[in-house]
Each structure stands twice: as C-alpha cells, then as structure tokens.
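Notebook entry, structure prediction.
Reason for the run: the old model in the group folder had no record of what sequence produced it. Starting over properly, with the input documented here first.
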Amino acid sequence: MATRQLLADLSRSFETAQWNVEIESMGGVDAARIVREGKVIDVIVLASNVMEKLESEGWIVPGTRSDVARSGVAIAVRAGLPRPAIASEEDVKQAVLGARKISYSTGPSGDHLKRLFERWNIAELIADRTVEAKPGIPVGQLLARGDADLGFQQLSEFIDVEGIDIVGPLPAEIQTITVFTAGISTRAAHPDGARSYVTHLVSPETQAKKQKLGMEAAG
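New structure, fully documented this time:
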C-alpha cells in the first residue's frame, strides 16, 4: 500500500502503445498470499525482505529483483489536535503514553512500533489503546475518522490524506527504513513488458516523483 500512488504515477509515465499497466494494491500480507497461491502476475513490488523470501520459494525470477524506493516512518495526528514533540526517542514514548488511541499498520512500520513498545516496557500498559489497521486500511483513514489520535506509518501513506496533520518523521535514533523492491514473477504472462517496467521504476527520471511522495531512490 505504501507504494500505490508512486506505482500509479510511474505507470502512467511508462505506458505506451505496446504496454498497458494494471495495478492491484493491497496490504503486504495479502499480496504475498496471492503470489503464493500462484496468481498470474507480471511484476511484484513488496518490502525487500519479503521479496527475498518469495524468490527463495521460487515465485520470483532469480536476478530480477531491483530496489525501487526507500521509505521511513512518520507520525501523524488527527487534524486540529496538538502536535506532540517528537525530537527524541523519549519524546515519542511520551507522545504514545499520552495518546487516547494509537494506530499503526500490519506492515513493516507496525512491526517496528511493536518492537519499540516492548523495548519501552509499555506494550501491556497501552494494549487497550492501540488500534492495528487491517491490511489495506491506511492509518491516516483511522486518524481522520476519529478511531485514533496518534498514528505511525510510512510517510508516503500520510501524504495528501485529508483530516490529518503530519507531525514529522521518527527521530533518527529510532527510525526504520523500508526498501521496496520490484521483481518479475515466475508466473508472468508478459515477461518482456515486466522487464521494461522494472527498468522504468528504477530509472533516474523517476527520482523527483519519489521525493514528492516522501520516498527516496533506493539505488
């Protein structure tokens, strides 16, 4: 889901008379599941650790994985709420402790937050105040409709979401970077088009679009 807007934009700039791109965006857990179910897919784009595993299982053509973009975790609040201090790890911990409801995703950013809660010894303390967004549901959506006050997710998933205010990225001392990787499926119906598309995703001319959406080139 973190790459859905980026892929939509880059697909428009890639499409030619020869190739048309159709994108199906969903949570990473669901995406990996349908790959393993053998669905005919040309290109897969997921977090790099998941892509490595899928290749080892025989679902991605060896040697076709290419890192597309890097994305960090950001913090947001429902629009109009006070913005907490987030300059340090302790600031973020206090923001979590002071929030009525905290939301995070089922993806890499959510896994990172759960590890932080354990490290801070507050996981049990805040258990009844945490809301894990279901796969495919943006944390920003939960914030906007009042289901949570403080949210954590990839920055790209917060950009242009109405009803929220982006506070900023996690401080460097607790930041985590997810690398999103593209690869050609062993079930690809159009391997030539898939190779051309992956080449486009990592080309230098896509850098400005990645930056606009809160990401960086991974190369």
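Summary: The two ends are 21 Å apart (CA to CA).
The old model has been moved to the deprecated folder.
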